[in-house]
Design goal:
Number of helices: 14
Shape: globular
Structural class: alpha/beta
Number of domains: 2
CATH superfamily of the largest domain: Type I PLP-dependent aspartate aminotransferase-like (Major domain)
Number of strands: 17
Bound molecules: pyridoxal-5'-phosphate
CATH class of the largest domain: Alpha Beta
CATH topology of the largest domain: Aspartate Aminotransferase, domain 2
Helix content: 40-55%
Distance between the termini: 44 Å
């Protein structure tokens, strides 16, 4: 199905503006996506029509708001095809979800000497929480290396499993390279050894259909703001069998059943992990974002973004001294590059003057940059509202900067 991109662009008010006197070309979607009017309206509706703290309320507004919040949970459940809605926990985002798992899974299932496996292409938020556990509990962290194309070296993984391997935590899609990891194969490998798997889907849910039951992953985490939804809201999906046994992450309101100074009992799932007033407007906005992408069709979005990726890669490769980092056979719509020895920061600053927004730096993946022995890259990342014309402008812009730098 061919998408009407202009119609889609019209849903995103922010795109219709000039930056430094040039039309904005927003190519920084791996950092965060822009929000369609449908999401903005849904959040606006909360505050103009029915804002009220959720659960426990007896009055009308509280009931309406609670219902919308719980409907949002069911929307997420259906979106990722979780078996139960109570396996869907609202968090602040991917980072908080990984920290929660490291803390609460770590509490119960990891002890000194145990091993967690991550990969060389992880975002810091799937490295540092495990390193903190290394310090707190004496676990150790093992790292699956990547080849020059930015693909996981799976043959190495087979050698890394030991009796002490207790969890594998991996990105579905690399934010810095775009590599789509073969997570189903990895999950199956791990399950043959009874090792649970956590998937960081921060860069995936907006690009590919995710079915957590078909994948059979034990945990799957993502952020609302990269899926055209609001900031401050994210998801932790976990299989009931794990979540039930895990300890709460934070204490406070909502996560308890009874509290007394003699002792406290904890609430059932999902509330056990949702201490305090949750970001219900964010959850409701996320549900609107899910409606939005579902209406267009995640597979249609994926197909269109793949066209942009191929078009962009072909064009960028014609630029002299272009080095593209991340050339995996399976790739999402992210192009990371360096041109000659132009510093990524200079490239990014000069493109900005032309109205082109790209990200520069290490992309919160310093170990990956160390692997390539570079300080960082320039990253253009495409979403459903981007166009070939914007990619043409990017290419022209890069050529201008290259000429300036001789
Ligand atoms: N994991 C990956 C692969 C990411 O790309 C990001 C953000 O860029 C994160 C985790 C962290 O997401 P957040 O900052 O929304 O918690």
């Amino acid at each position: 199905m061919s998408l009407d991109i202009q119609k889609i662009r019209n849903d995103f008010p922010i795109l219709d503006q000039q930056v430094h006197g040039k039309p904005l070309a927003y190519l920084d979607n791996a950092a965060t996506t822009q929000k369609p009017r449908q999401v903005i309206d849904a959040v606006n509706d909360v505050y103009t029509k029915y804002n009220s703290n959720i659960h426990r309320g007896v009055h009308h507004l509280s009931n309406v708001c609670t219902q919308a919040f719980e409907d949002a949970r069911v929307k997420v459940q259906k979106f990722i095809n979780a078996e139960h809605s109570h396996e869907v926990i609202f968090t602040r985002g991917t980072t908080e979800s990984v920290n929660l798992i490291a803390h609460s899974f770590g509490d119960v299932f990891l002890k000194e000497g145990d091993e967690v496996i991550v990969s060389q292409l992880e975002h810091h938020s799937n490295i540092v929480p495990w390193q903190m556990l290394e310090q707190r509990k004496g676990i150790s962290l093992n790292v699956i290396p990547i080849n020059d194309k930015g693909e996981l070296m799976l043959e190495e993984l087979d050698e890394m499993f030991t009796e002490k391997t207790k969890l594998v935590a991996l990105a579905h899609i690399s934010n810095a390279l775009g590599t789509i990891n073969p997570i189903k194969t990895i999950i199956d490998k791990c399950h043959q050894r009874d090792i649970p798997v956590m998937i960081d889907g921060a860069q995936a849910v907006q690009h590919v259909s995710v079915d957590v039951q078909a994948l059979d992953c034990d945990f799957y985490v993502f952020s609302g703001h990269k899926l055209y939804g609001p900031t401050g809201i994210g998801i932790l999906y976990g299989k009931e069998k794990w979540l039930d046994q895990m300890t709460p992450y934070q204490g406070g309101g909502e996560m308890i059943q009874t509290v007394s100074f003699e002792g406290t009992t904890f609430n059932e799932l999902p509330f056990k992990f949702e201490a305090g007033t949750p970001d219900y407007s964010g959850a409701i906005g996320l549900a609107a974002a899910i409606d939005y992408v579902t209406h267009i069709g995640v597979d249609n979005i994926a197909a269109y973004e793949h066209e942009l990726l191929v078009y962009g890669t072909d064009k960028l490769e014609t630029i002299p001294q272009m080095n593209i980092y991340g050339t995996a056979a399976e790739k999402a719509s992210v192009i990371s590059f360096l041109v000659g020895n132009i510093h990524p920061y200079d490239m990014g600053m000069m493109l900005d003057k032309m109205g082109i927004a790209v990200r520069t730096g290490h992309h919160c993946a310093q170990p990956l940059m160390q692997r390539y022995n570079i300080p960082g890259t320039v990253r253009a990342s495409f979403a459903v509202y981007n166009t070939r014309e914007e990619i043409d402008r990017l290419v022209e812009g890069i050529l201008k900067v290259s000429q300036l730098f001789g």
